[in-house]
Design goal:
The chain contains eight helices and eight strands, in the order H-H-H-H-H-E-E-E-E-H-E-E-H-E-E-H. By secondary structure, it is an alpha+beta fold. The protein has three domains: 85 residues, Helix Hairpins; 51 residues, SH3 type barrels, CATH 2.30.30.60; 82 residues, Alpha-Beta Plaits (2-Layer Sandwich), CATH 3.30.70. The strands form two sheets. A five-stranded antiparallel beta sheet has the order 4-3-2-1-5. A three-stranded antiparallel beta sheet has the order 6-8-7.
Amino acid sequence: MSIDFSNALKQAQAIANDIVTMLPNLVLAAVILLISFVMGRYIAKAIRALSHRAGQGANVGLLLGRMAVYAVSIFGFLVALSTVFPSFKARDLIQVLGIGGVAVGFAFKDIFQNFLAGVIILVSRPFRIGDVIAVKGFEGTVEDIQTRATMIRTYDNQRIVIPNSTVFTEEVKVITAYENRRTEVEFTIDYAGNLELAKETICQILNDNESVDKTPAPDVLTMNFLGDGVQLRLRFWVTPEKANPLIVRDAVMTAVKVALDAKGIALAKAAPVPPHIES
């Protein structure tokens, strides 16, 4: 029994001939896609520059630039598709998308949700690139706001990618929303210590620290009388652009402990935790 491969060979030859015939169009389509990609990048860059000159925020220029890239890329794709398939019409694709729009909507619901949330964040500007924010237990500097997600760099140099829908619906703390930041520290001194001398010593330390803002003025408040001593609260402001608030806090707390020890003012000892007895 012999097998006739003639029909298969004819089909393969026909396909090869079609590919050879379409090869110039395929090359032209690839060139069109490359040109549209490059043009989109240049147009986006120009839009961001014009937005900056017009006094708009970086977020607005970023959004408009990305929308321009998408628009040019889609246009280039349609032109390339028409080059490869001359019978193709853009309205045909629109009709197909219209028919399958509901299915596509369900399939890409999360993507569309993140995209719309990203657009709202970029337009409303609750925070900007370079701000320090805290969301969902993560705190760090905003590196980029994309149409799908917001990227932050944590203090330990990790990149966290948070979906824009989460950023939009969750509570976000913008730590650098204002020029300076207030630090509050509470501690308790022993009743035997001189309260006025303790407050005077702490105020002197705050005033002598060049990284502590003088306006608003730092202060020390007596907050409560506890069982083990007097509770104090010191408050001071730091401008993050001039100094790191965490480093300033460390310097202040170290100086307070050393100064109080030198003046014989002891910190109250925490009450011992009673042992746990199982019944």
